[in-house]
């Protein structure tokens, strides 16, 4: 992703692929997509936040605010089951 696209806040993905296996990145993408966002970048653009609540032990997302202003709270441990991994979209900028 170019620095200019990242700074202006209007970055759009250039391509999308599906996750093949579980990783920490896929886990966090799963949480963002469950809350209705593409990824962390879109969440920060829409909600105008700099920091996202994360579990210190794992680094996984702890809490997200949906577009209708309700909150999703997530556990410390993995929530994306193996049968859900192929549904996660991984965007490239």
Automatic annotation (TrEMBL):
Q: What does the entry list under GO cellular component?
A: nucleus
Q: Which residues form a coiled coil?
A: none
Q: Which residues cross the membrane?
A: none
Query: Pfam families recorded for this chain?
Result: Meiosis_expr (PF15163)
- InterPro entries in the record: Meiosis-expressed_gene_1 (IPR020186)
Entry similarity comment: Belongs to the MEIG1 family.
Q: What does this protein do?
A: Essential for spermiogenesis.
Q: What is this protein called?
A: Meiosis expressed gene 1 protein homolog
- Organism, scientific name: Coregonus suidteri
- Lineage summary: Eukaryota, Metazoa, Chordata, Craniata, Vertebrata
């Amino acid at each position: 992703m170019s620095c200019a696209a990242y700074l202006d806040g209007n970055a759009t993905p250039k391509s999308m692929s599906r996750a093949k296996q579980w990783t920490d990145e896929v886990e966090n993408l799963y949480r963002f997509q469950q809350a209705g966002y593409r990824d962390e970048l879109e969440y920060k653009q829409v909600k105008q936040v700099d920091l996202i609540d994360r579990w210190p032990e794992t680094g996984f997302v702890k809490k997200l605010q949906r577009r209708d202003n309700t909150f999703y709270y997530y556990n410390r441990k993995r929530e994306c089951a193996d049968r859900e991994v192929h549904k996660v979209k991984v965007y490239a900028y």
